[in-house]
């Protein structure tokens, strides 16, 4: 059986869906089932359940707010991860820890390899990296998967924001000097399930293929959604945020390919499928509304 934390979030939701699709026994839990910052509860819960693998998707993900909530962010991303890893150690189960491109400093324009030089620029990035270190210190049977620019049907993300603003505005300023890759949770969930069933432990980068800037991403969303909103490219310095983001978020997939895991489809293809998924979700909601 596979236990998935953060099952009410974007990624955890689709991981559970994929496990169910494959008929793999699993349990998805949210904060209301288990607060991962409570070490006694985590230990007791996991020792009781004895999963063969834990896919740890729960995290403190409010990147800007983290600059003012350092302790809360640390407790969830570092101590919470340590609690899960300690319990995995006790029952000898595998752990998949989800990390981020924000562990890198974003310099240069070459994709970061998995052992590239670490230099988080934000509290969130720092805590996610410390979470990686805890997993590596405590366990042998672990996967660390760095992902970026996540979008899934169960939560808010850049695409949803663009779709909303694209209907309200004729023009939008979007940063063009941060380059990375979007990650569709449906595609990633399939890879995570493959990993959970394997023993090819290690550190991997996993995003959809291809690189783009946020501005290119936004323009493509508008085009594919038939919205007449013009995207105006601006530099990051004209859009200051509380937390500093890396300019270069390109992640190399070399270790994924070397281990012969399937690489994820190109991001434009993932976007097409996501827009179809969103339309399906809207139709379902409207059908339900009509019935009531
Ligand atoms: N989103 C991105 O763009 C992005 C980019 C790179 C990496 N990542 C990583 O990818 C993973 C999944 O991200 P996501 O976008 O799916 O995140 P998400 O939608 O924010 O989901 C995270 C989940 O963790 C839960 N959680 C927070 N604190 C908890 C606690 N103390 N105990 C138990 N559960 C707790 C949250 O529950 P509540 O809703 O109750 O708070 C939420 O459901 C995370 O590890 C994240 O760091 C995300």
Could you name the key traits of this structure?
binds NADP nicotinamide-adenine-dinucleotide phosphate; 9 helices; 14 strands; six-stranded parallel sheet; Rossmann fold; two-stranded parallel sheet; globular
The gyration radius over C-alpha positions equals 19 Å
Q: How many H/I helices?
A: 9
Main sheet properties:
6 strands, parallel
Helix content: 40-55%
Would you tell me the structural class of the helices and strands?
A: alpha/beta
Shape: globular
What's the CATH class, please? Alpha Beta
Tell me the CATH superfamily: NAD(P)-binding Rossmann-like Domain
User: What is the N-to-C order of secondary-structure elements (H for helix, E for strand)?
Assistant: EHEHEHEHEEHEEEHEEEHEHEH
**CATH level-two architecture:** 3-Layer(aba) Sandwich
Mean pLDDT, nearest integer?
Answer: 96
* Oligomeric description of these chains: single chain
Number of strands: 14
- Distance from N terminus to C terminus (CA atoms, Å) equals 38 Å
Overall tally of structural domains: 1
| CATH topology descriptor | Rossmann fold
Cofactors, ions, other ligands = NADP nicotinamide-adenine-dinucleotide phosphate
Order of strands in the sheet with the most strands?
A: 2-1-3-4-5-10
Measured by DSSP, the beta-strand proportion falls in 15-25%
InterPro entries: dTDP_dehydrorham_reduct, NAD(P)-bd_dom_sf, RmlD-like-bd
Keywords: NADP, Oxidoreductase
EC number: 1.1.1.133
Domain RmlD-like substrate binding: 2-277
């Amino acid at each position: 059986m596979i236990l998935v934390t953060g099952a009410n979030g974007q990624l955890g939701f689709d991981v559970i869906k994929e496990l169910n699709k494959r008929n793999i026994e699993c349990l998805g839990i949210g904060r209301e089932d288990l607060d991962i910052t409570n070490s006694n509860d985590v230990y007791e819960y996991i020792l009781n359940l004895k999963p063969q693998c834990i896919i740890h998707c729960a995290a403190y993900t409010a990147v800007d707010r983290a600059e003012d909530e350092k302790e809360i962010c640390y407790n969830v991303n570092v101590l919470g991860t340590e609690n899960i890893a300690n319990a995995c150690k006790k029952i000898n189960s595998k752990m998949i820890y989800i990390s981020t491109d924000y562990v890198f400093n974003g310099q240069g324009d070459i994709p970061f390899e998995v052992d590239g030089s670490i230099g988080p620029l934000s509290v969130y990035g720092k805590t996610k990296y410390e979470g990686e270190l805890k997993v590596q210190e405590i366990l042998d049977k672990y996967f660390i998967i760095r992902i970026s620019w996540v979008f899934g049907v169960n939560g808010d993300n850049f695409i949803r924001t663009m779709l909303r603003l694209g209907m309200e505005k004729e023009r939008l300023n979007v940063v063009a000097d941060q380059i990375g890759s979007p990650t569709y949770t449906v595609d990633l969930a399939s890879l995570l399930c493959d990993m959970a069933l394997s023993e090819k432990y290690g550190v991997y980068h996993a995003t959809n293929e291809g690189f783009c800037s946020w501005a290119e991403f936004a323009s493509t969303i508008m085009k594919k959604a038939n919205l007449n909103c013009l995207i105006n490219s601006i530099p990051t310095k004209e859009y200051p945020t509380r937390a500093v983001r890396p300019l270069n978020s390109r992640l190399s997939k070399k270790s994924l390919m070397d281990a012969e895991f399937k690489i994820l489809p190109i991001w434009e293809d993932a976007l097409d499928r996501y827009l179809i998924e969103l339309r399906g979700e809207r139709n379902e909601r409207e059908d339900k509304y009509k019935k009531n």
